[in-house]
Amino acid sequence: MGPGERTEREKATTRAATTRTRRRGAAVPWALLALWVALLAVVGPFAAKLADVQHDRAVDYLPASADSTQVARIEDQLPGGETTELVLVYHRDGGLSAADRATAARQVAKITRENPLTGTPKGVPSRDGTTLMYPVASSAPGTDEKKRDAFVNDVRDVARGENGLSVDVGGQGALATDAAEVYNSLGGPLLYTTVAVVAVLLILIYRSPLLWLVPLAVAGVADYLSMGVAYGLHQAFGTTISGQSSGVMTILVFGAGTDYALLLISRYREELRRVERPYDAMREALRGCGPAVLASSGTVAAGLLCLLAADLNSSRGMGPMGTVGVLCALVAMLTLLPAVLVLLGRRVFWPLVPAYGSAPKQRRSLFATMGSSAGRRPYAVLAGGAVLLGALALGALNLPGSLKQQDSFVHTPDSVAAIETLAKAYPGQGTQPITVITPTGRADATLAAVRGQQGVASAARGRSGDGWTEISVTAKGAPQSAAETATITSLRDELKGSGSYVGGASAQQIDLQDTNARDRLVVVPIVLASVLLILIALLRSLVAPLLLVAAVIAVWGAALGIGGLVFGSLFGFGGTDPGLGLLSFVFLVALGVDYGIFLMHRMREESLSGAEPVAAALTALRTTGGVIASAGLVLAATFAVLTNMGLVQLVELGFVISVGVLLDTFLVRTYLVTSASVALRRRMWWPGRLSREPAGQPPEPRQKEPVPVA
């Protein structure tokens, strides 16, 4: 075979390969779209059912092994099931008149006629004559939250003030209904607000009339997929799904998903300037940033799954739900988003279209300036950052005490107004029952033991069934006061070992605090260990992972400290949610390391290509700083949506995570981590091969601090 024939055959082979590549480039995106359409068709019916399995009863949030949880579960088995307890509070500042009492009696009689109540309500007047309360209870709603809410609303429709008479409906059932109203609002308003916030930010970031729609639409598809997967998880494993965990899942889908989209689109734009065909450019972009996206999402998922070790039902259920959200966002952004972008071609970037062979505009960016200052004085930057974060963390000492149940609402509903009125009108008197569940065979002995306790005002035997008997106890102390807490503790000590359980609303709050303290001791080390191991495997270093983990811990402390400075003084919150520390730690560690992976992966990539450590660090900051900043803004904004919700615990969680993400984005990742990389140089990658000097090259000179001018 002559040279001419070989040349022709090589050309033919090249043309055939090019043709196959073009066909693949045209077929693969359409095939991925078809797969997603089929997937959504399968998942759609299940996604629509997620709201049906979402529950916000006390038992869905309580500790799995606590006394109060056992009481709630056993009450479900008693005749009539779970009891919905209400308190009708009639009040007039100048004292109740005879007409007021007649109005109260008439309304209570009507409620009794129209609803199957447990017992006949009896009025209890206050000593000062300003208030009259009627305890009302019904077992008809059982565990059905919709029936409970309907019962509460029916009572509220009847119990209305007349001629200046104030009437509020409180009690545990009313509190649950008011909380459920807030959680139900998480679905629509939370989704719409999140979409609007992300849309505005993407428009500002991309400055394109079309491009912002693509990642936003893909995130919406991922959210729909996550709802179907979450429903399947509940059906298969009984995963707890609450309004809180469902709302956080949506935020993670849009927040984390948009972050992955920003990183991929940024790299895709780079490749479009070097590669002619969009399909080939996308393939190179996925090769370049795919490992970082996979590692970062895996780190977030691993951190969230550590919540399975928690004993608190709400925390344990949030782990799988958050993981589902992150993984669905990952799958969508690495398959559906590339397919849509390739099919739309370069025109999706209009008017800033990255032309083949063009060079991006060279401009002095903020991150280049930050990198220069970090490169000149890395030790000074590190010292200043450490002092600032440490000072902010001291604010955590100013965090308000544990949040009381009546302080959980941002705006005061009827149920909380009733509690406040009762606290003033019945000082030093319990107005919220403590429930004791005891084996029926020991009911008399338990009742006698309960009545013998110093802090007990009264105790009465209630329902019996399935081997259990219910005893309703009234404490002398006001609800959630130190006196009532001491009474609950003494009851548990007295009944310990008898097979009896002490529960009720106040006991639930005690168990929540104790379990959150236990969960912090268990979950925090597991999160740190799992994240550290993933980082070591990814970065092939020990120093860099330790640095990243130390940085996110510092960010968490500083964010909590800022919360301590504003929760009481600025927001007027009466307490801090017991679960704030644990949940904010898990989210900030997992999401903060996420950004560290983006930066460190690019730094390692530059080092592997032969760049010196300082140049690699500054190049990584210059090329990824804008993306990390954009991603941080989007993620902080999505969590900030929670601050517009009606429950204090959601506002606190959203605030701390948002502030932490911003600190991490604009101070720690872009400034302090870069400064540490410049200061440590190759030692950053110890003991990996990048920590060793290349053969035949002299050791790098030590970076010197400039001498300050007097």
What can you tell me about this protein's structure?
With 710 residues, the protein is α+β, with helices and mostly antiparallel strands. Helix content is 63%, strand content 7%. The protein is built from 20 helices and 8 strands. It has helices at residues 3-47, 67-77, 98-114, 145-158, 172-185, 188-206, 213-237, 243-274, 278-305, 313-344, 366-376, 378-393, 414-425, 443-451, 482-495, 505-539, 543-566, 580-608, 613-640, 648-680; strands spanning 84-91, 124-125, 131-138, 166-170, 434-439, 456-465, 468-475, 501-503. The strands form 2 sheets. A 4-stranded antiparallel β-sheet has the order 2-3-1-4. It has a 4-stranded antiparallel β-sheet with strand order 6-7-5-8, sandwiched between helices. Helix 8 runs parallel beside helix 10 (313-344). The termini are far apart. 50% of the residues are buried.
What does the radius of gyration come to?
A: 31 Å
Q: What's the helix-strand series?
A: HHEHEEHEHHHHHHHHHEHEEHEHHHHH
**SS class:** alpha+beta
Shape descriptor reads: elongated
Cα distance, first to last residue?
Answer: 81 Å
**What topology, given as strand order, has the largest sheet?**
2-3-1-4
Q: Can you count the beta strands?
A: 8
The total of helices stands at: 20
Task: State the helical fraction.
Answer: 55-70%
Brief summary of the model shown:
The chain is of the alpha+beta class and 710 residues long.
List the helices and strands and how they pair.
Blueprint lengths: L2 H45 L19 H11 L6 E8 L6 H17 L9 E2 L5 E8 L6 H14 L7 E5 L1 H14 L2 H19 L6 H25 L5 H32 L3 H28 L7 H32 L21 H11 L1 H16 L20 H12 L8 E6 L3 H9 L4 E10 L2 E8 L6 H14 L5 E3 L1 H35 L3 H24 L13 H29 L4 H28 L7 H33 L30
Antiparallel strand pairs: 1-3, 1-4, 2-3, 5-7, 5-8, 6-7
Helix pairs in contact: 1-7, 1-10, 4-5, 6-8, 6-19, 7-8, 7-10, 8-9, 8-10, 8-19, 9-10, 9-16, 9-18, 11-19, 11-20, 12-17, 12-20, 16-17, 16-18, 17-18, 17-20, 18-19, 18-20, 19-20
